[in-house]
Amino acid sequence: MYCSCCDMKNMLRMSSIGTHCILGLCIRFALIAYGEVHDRLSVVQYTDIDYRVFTDAARHMLLGSSPYNRHTYRYTPLLAAVLTPNLILHPAWGKLLFSMVDICVALLIQFLVIAQGSSTRVATWCLMAWVYNPLAIVIATRGNADSISAMFVLGTLLLLEKQYFMLAGVMHGLAIHVRLYPIAFSLAMYLSVHKDRHISLMKEAFCRNAVKQLLSDLKPTCNHVKLVLACLATLGSLTGMCYALYGYRFLYESLLYHLGRRDIRHNFSVYFYLQYLGSDAPAGLTQRVLTFVPQLILLLALSWAYGCRRDLPFCVLSQAIVMVAYNPVLTSQYFVWFLSLVPPCLPWLSLSCHQAIAITVLWLAAQLAWLLPAYWLEFRGQDTFVYLWLQGIALFCANVAVLGRFIRAYQPMKIEKLK
Q1: What is the 3-state secondary structure (H, E, C) of the chain?
Q2: Which of 17, 36, 211, 281 is the most buried (most CB within 10 A)?
């Protein structure tokens, strides 16, 4: 009788999860249909400009030429290949695909939360936090591909939690090939292998034997080797294959370009105005140091502080926020980098409902305040560069405030209460 009741409860929970996923998918499909109509009637397009770039690159591939013949296509050729049905089946194929990947992201969030010891009920709430996230819905249905990167990152975290180190390495290599930013998580993932302890940032920073402990943590084991070799083999083979097909242009556009990228339009970054004023000259050494070194120091500190298996999702979330806040180029799709990592960490964040709402309102208000001068600049031709810079500073402060609040609220032992 007990087993029958348990089976019934599990069936009801699975039915509930399926219902949420189907409803979330229907919402996304409805917005895709709306976007098709909106784009025909409005000057301000619903579809992301990058989606049109993807489609043009796919057209070049179908014609037998390089996708990089499409100016501003700076992604893996695999993405253009996947979107060739845009030209064969329907122009909205890619949006449908990204929406389905978005639901896969939600399922991976649920699996990861359960794998870390939380209850199915809590995991379902975490799944819902992504399925009904308005920003996630809009970004995917506008035709942005960053949900694919989020899926690979979450898949890597789940495989590491399950201790499938070789598969995790393959997934991580694929994630880096598709989008360069997951490479920043590599050290934390390496340190997480067979590590269950939790060390706070302050304790780790001032530990008397910190250097000795770090050297011990870096010492490779068999599982470390599996993770690293699988990652390098996957990344190397994919990169080699694409290089054989498209040569140096592939390396530059999809990898090297992003290391020194500058953008004086559509850019939330705190460095936006600096780039605009120096747009006629190449970035000097001082500018590169100012934009790169603070980010690198924080990424290394977070890897060391939270580089254990139990803390890995929160570590990756913190690092993603740092990369987004300090990036010289910041557009709306970059928010997916850390927004997809918030739900898996929710059971460990000691935040009241009021605190969560306050954080959300603060962050959204900083974004909306940026959009007004951006609209006047882009569509009205008004000189609002200084206002955009000031709003970029406000958004940077909001991102740093959110990260600081998350670090203070993070309580990994709270999981014991949820089992």
Answers
A1: CHHHHHHHHHHHHHHHHHHHHHHHHHHHHHHHHHHHHHHHHCCCCCCCHHHHHHHHHHHHHHCCCCHHHCCCCCCCHHHHHHCCHHHHCCCCHHHHHHHHHHHHHHHHHHHHHHHCCCCHHHHHHHHHHHHCCHHHHHHHHCCCCHHHHHHHHHHHHHHHHCCCHHHHHHHHHHHHHHCCHHHHHHHHHHHCCCCCCCCCHHHHHCCCCHHHHHHHHHCCCHHHHHHHHHHHHHHHHHHHHHHHHHHHHHHHHHHHHHHCCCCCCCCCCCCHHHHHHCCCCCCCHHHHHHHHHHHHHHHHHHHHHCCCHHHHHHHHHHHHHHHHHHCCCCCHHHHHHHHCCHHHHHHHECCCHHHHHHHHHHHHHHHHHHHHHHHHHHHHCCCCHHHHHHHHHHHHHHHHHHHHHHHHHECHHHHHHHC
A2: 17
